[in-house]
Amino acid sequence: MLPSLLGFTAFVLIPVLISLVLSFTEWNLIQPIKFVGFENYYELLTADRIFLKVAGNTLIYVILIVPVQLLLGLILAVALNQSIRGIIWYRLVIFMPVITNIVAVAIVFQFFLNRDFGIASGWIWQIADVTGWAVAPPDWLNSQELSKSAVAMLTIWKNVGFSMVIYLAGLQGVPESLYDAARVDGAGNWQRFFHVTIPMVSPTTFFLIIIQMIGAFQLFAEPYVLTRGGPAQSSLSVVQYIYQNAFEYGLMGKAAAIAWLLFLVIMILMIVQTWLQRRWVHYES
Amino acid sequence: MYIKFRKGFLHLVLMVVGFIMLMPFLWMLSTSLKNPKEIFTYPPIWIPSEIRWENYLDALTVVPFGRYYVNSIVVALSVTFIVLITSSLAAFAFARLKFRGREILFFTYLATLMIPFPVLLIPNFLIVREFGWYDTYAALILPPAFSAVATFLYRQAFRGIPTVLDDAARIDGASSWQIWWKVIMPNAGPVTAALGIFTFLGNWNEFLWPLVVTNRVEMRTIPVGLSSFQGQYSVQWELLMSAAVIALLPIVIIYLFAQKWIISGVTISGMGGR
Prior knowledge:
The complex is a heterodimer of chains A (285) and B (274). Chain A is an all-alpha fold and 285 residues long. Chain A has helices spanning 2-22, 39-46, 49-80, 87-99, 102-112, 119-131, 147-172, 176-184, 189-200, 202-217, 221-226, 238-248, 252-280; strands at residues 25-26, 34-35. Chain B has 2 domains: 2-52, no CATH class; 62-270, MetI-like fold. Classes of the chains: A mainly alpha (285), B mainly alpha (274).
């Protein structure tokens, strides 16, 4: 007990307090620390245009990533939950990105999505050649409109296997007798999917929404490596902004305040989700 | 007939998905073996006309991968070891020992599960700096080594072990330490395996924390080393891709052989033991 408690106090409990106190100060590690009350928060929420931009970016990341990730994960899990050959191999391949290191795969995506020599562009040129259709490949990484989608694609590609295996575990808990009963009542494939599968895995869905949401709010390595947050902060995430303020500009107090705002938003959304779940999550009694 | 058609369609869809998942890895491998002249061609060349293993030698001479590997192995193994020991001890106390404030303390552990890492990032950096640990193994290993998740999972598992086993051992004169090590832990093998795999992978791939607390080349882990290499050699794609392959290869090979255990370890830990 004691070692855990010591480590826990030193690296979790005390840091939480330090960061809360820091968020009310102005400190650059060199000059003496200065208490400024709520000024960091006030400025972030009213005057800091970059903060408002990165907060918006992060919200878009959550909206782009979480639903797609869940839907694809569920579809793949249902597909793999049947008796077909080669299931192990499909699962192996789809889960593989989950265990790989984000920096390495982000570098490949950077190459892949490059407008001038990436394969994604190559395919579009080929389509254009074959069909005679005048399309130009999009510049995923250097366009303010598309850079967030590029980061979202990378994130979904990397994490969809995780949603899939969690859904697979959830599906294994659905009793076959329910499907049989539905079949007897004349329910088709789609009806069984919507009226048996979806409600029965709703606790898994709820769990995944929470986990993926927390993850998407804290994206860092994905935009850091893929786009460096650019162009013009169009793909900069909140955690990247915390990193920049703390370790590039030396604004410790401001960075701590951003972290607390992030915490607050995640907390509020979790409470809302937990409250909403009573309406749609189906628990076996 | 209908079922055959349906299965055929399913295979087709799964193969397309599988191809999408694999393609970045294949492209990485292919580019890493190319002559630079073949990298920017249109249409793209998948199989290089000459296989250039030299790219790997070149990547290894510019990037001290040996050192990065040692660092990553030392860090990920040490963190995993400390997490397993301290969390199981704490969970043992929570599940089996009676002491004052136990419930409040456990609730505190649970509550910290909700704190996102960015909140702890800056204070932990300051603590590490205050202790003089910046750019040392202590900074890389100790702060990530105390896990409320693992404590929670172990506690769940321990509560499923019948207490008659403890009682029998106690009658035979076993101390709490002995009960933890000889009775409880041997019965919690699956959780230890799952948590071990999950913790190791998480720390092996961790990027933000090592980025913040290391500066010298000799202290970098693989992800941080690869990222700084990318910053310097952003135009030499064949070298970058060789470096990426070197960074991924061992974990992918281990994964191919132990996929069953890795997937179930991540699933069990990821779901919080549900």
